[in-house]
Design a protein that fits this description.
Leucine-rich Repeat Variant; 14 helices; about 0% strand; about 220 residues; mainly alpha
């Protein structure tokens, strides 16, 4: 066992490991150490200041789920955009579950949106489930507010997948887009631009949102297929 793994095991919560295993199907139960996310976030903030973190980021694949979570958190803390993109692209092929994918949210991306869009277009076209999911998530996180352009809605509309975790992200994206950019997004439902499952899940998630008005929710109900 490595020195880092020993440190992570010192932070483990066995009950939490079992809980996480149930939430993350397809990952072997013995891959979960059981470090709670707030504890792991604190650990990452300290570990990124240690020289050893670079070697850890460079050594893939990892054995434990918690190591992958730590890796994602370290990438999220990187301050140099080019280094962050390089590390992200190295890591994404090894991401094998929604939790690791979704916890990775580099802060430096918000300051480099012009460059980031090109990466998002590549990620969203990937056949790797979690690379595609990550690309759509970054589009949702960074381009539905002041930087929004209607053509950005075409990027996820071009994604057609049989993968549950891709389709759930598509629905999450369009439900969020309805809340933030109603007029531009609504035609994608009115014109049935999305695959039926994504279409109906988008409506469900939007109707569950407090950011959608009652009148809008009633109208969305009429668009179910």
């Amino acid at each position: 066992m490595t020195e880092l793994q020993n440190r992570l095991f010192a932070l483990r919560d066995k009950e939490y490991a079992l809980f996480q295993a149930k939430l993350t199907p397809g990952i072997p139960q013995d891959s979960f150490i059981g470090v709670r996310v707030p504890v792991l976030r604190t650990f990452a903030k300290g570990y990124i200041k240690e020289p050893g973190h670079s070697a850890f980021i460079g050594s893939l694949p990892h054995h434990y789920y918690d190591e992958n979570m730590l890796h994602a958190l370290l990438i999220s803390l990187m301050k140099d955009y080019d280094q962050c993109i390089a590390a992200t692209n190295r890591f994404l092929p090894y991401v094998d579950n929604w939790a690791v994918c979704d916890i990775m949210s580099p802060k430096v991306f918000a300051r480099n949106k012009g460059q980031l869009m090109g990466e998002i277009k590549l990620w969203s076209r990937s056949e790797h489930v979690y690379t595609c999911r990550f690309g759509i998530e970054m589009l949702m996180s960074h381009y539905l507010d002041s930087d929004f352009k209607p053509e950005y809605l075409e990027i996820p509309a071009a994604v057609h997948s049989d993968e549950y975790y891709v389709n759930m992200m598509l629905a999450w994206f369009y439900a969020t887009a309805l809340a933030k950019q109603w007029d531009a997004t609504l035609p994608y439902l009115q014109q049935h631009r999305l695959d039926p499952w994504v279409h109906n899940k988008t409506i469900q998630k939007a109707r569950e949102s407090y950011r959608i008005t009652p009148e809008q929710k009633d109208y969305l109900k009429t668009l179910k297929v």
